[in-house]
Amino acid sequence: MGSLKDELLKGIWHAFTALDLDHSGKVSKSQLKVLSHNLCTVLKVPHDPVALEEHFRDDDEGPVSNQGYMPYLNKFILEKVQDNFDKIEFNRMCWTLCVKKNLTKNPLFITEEDAFKIWVIFNFLSEDKYPLIIVPEEIEYLLKKLTEAMGVSWQQEQFENYKINFDDSKDGLSVWELIELVGNGQFSKGMDRQTVSMAINEVFNELILDVLKQGYMIKKGHRRKNWTERWFVLKPNIISYYVSEDLKDKKGDILLDESCCVESLPDKDGKKCLFLIKCFDKTFEISASDKKKKQEWIQAIHSTIHLLKLGSPPPHKEARQRRKELRKKLLAEQEELERQMKELQVANENKQQELEAVRKKLEEAASRAAEEEKKRLQTQVELQARFNTELEREKLIRQQMEEQVAQKSSELEQYLQRVRELEDMYLKLQEALEDERQARQDEETVRKLQARLLEEESSKRAELEKWHLEQQQAIQTTEAEKQELENQRVIKEQALQEALEQLQQLELERKQALEQYEGVKKKLEMATKTTNSWKDKVAHHEGLIRLIEPGSKNPHLITNWGPAAFTQAELEERQKSWKEKKTTE
């Protein structure tokens, strides 16, 4: 329903736009009333004049915009549309409203009827956004279809040159620009008007009327079994056959569903290139003109049945949907690429700003470094002068020191001798201290070892005590669980003993009941025998066994066992006879 609504909106948009004479985006209410009434008529929707007048009642708002008309259009027309109207009639109504205003005044190589068909094809191939346009990819697809239908080769180079000269400011062509493109013969040079018209009609039949294949074949009749040439038209779920290709005299339909199949048949009855279409209640024998046509029709019908089994749309609609999805995907990828480019551009600008800031910092640092270098050189000159002064003073001091050294030299020898002696004494004292330190270190090591052993013994003892407590607790827990299990076992044994006793009691009661049953059975058999013998005696004594005679017309008695075998009068006579017998006895 959504796709049908989208298709209808395209035609209605053309009509609304044509009624907008001053291009203000608004249409007068009187014109919209007429448009709504015409739409209800062609779409076979019940017309509600009350709702129409209520929606378009006069007020001060003036003309109605497209957005203002859409709520009424959706609620009272589009939501009620069923797929039972004539789409060609609907398109022709919308076309009539917009053709005079928009169709080019330049002479065209095609008729107005061909222009109408291109207008309908445009609505089928255009994008689902407004204002409606057809993108270059769909233009190429349509021109290829027309070229193939005319039987000439496709000139890709010519179309590429056309795309190069295409206005970059536009995303595609409007319907009137497309009609002018096809009508000026730019891509159909060398073709006559009739050939172009036939090509447009063939593409129109395929894309709009869902004609998958059509052509003359010979069909065998069901009643007279005669062979008659018919014009066959294959659609997604039906094969219609007509007297001729003008489609005026329709002779019948072959309804296709998932259970149908098509088979090739051998030549017979002088007919060649035969094949059979099996449906639910009928079979159709058809003869093609040659083997190629036969194979094409078998393949086309088989593909149609396969699409019905899959629930898929016709190939051209599925291809259009795939192209639209591909364009959406490419557009999304392009938008993502543009977004990434913008991000990269922003990042590049940020990086340029950072580099500019770094450059400024480097320039400032360089100026600071130049000043510092200048200060350093000035400081170096001052230090050099100070160093020379210090050097001169040092030389003077050195001379004085050399004199003092010469004087102190002898004193130094004596001092060195004394130092050597003190060094020997220091070495001996150091050895003694080393021995004492080693002894103390050994003592400290032994003491630490003893302390560590004591700590380990203490931890082991604490651990053993902990284990002992845990074992005591485990033993107590085990004893308690053992006692509990013993109690449960005793309780279960008692319950088992009681159950056995109850079972024995039930067995005894069963035996007693069986004995009672046997006794009752015997009594019942004896009672049955007694009853039978009693019945025989009574029957013999009372004379119940008698010949069957015609019954009395008097009313019968009713006993506990049903209707009696004698009447009230007979009963009274029997009572009298019994009394007489008793008196005689």
UniProtKB/TrEMBL annotation:
The keyword Cytoplasm applies. One of its GO terms (cellular component) is plasma membrane. InterPro entries: EF-hand-dom_pair, EF-hand_SWAP70_N, PH-like_dom_sf, PH_domain, PH_SWAP70. Keywords: Cell membrane, Cell projection, Coiled coil, Cytoplasm, DNA-binding, Membrane, Nucleus, Phosphoprotein. CDD domains: PH_SWAP-70. Residues 210-306 form the PH domain. Its main location: membrane. Residues 316-530 form a coiled coil. Pfam families: EF-hand_SWAP70_N, PH. Phosphatidylinositol 3,4,5-trisphosphate-dependent guanine nucleotide exchange factor (GEF) which, independently of RAS, transduces signals from tyrosine kinase receptors to RAC. It also mediates signaling of membrane ruffling. Regulates the actin cytoskeleton as an effector or adapter protein in response to agonist stimulated phosphatidylinositol (3,4)-bisphosphate production and cell protrusion. This is Switch-associated protein 70. It comes from Moschus moschiferus (Siberian musk deer). The lineage of its organism: Eukaryota, Metazoa, Chordata, Craniata, Vertebrata.
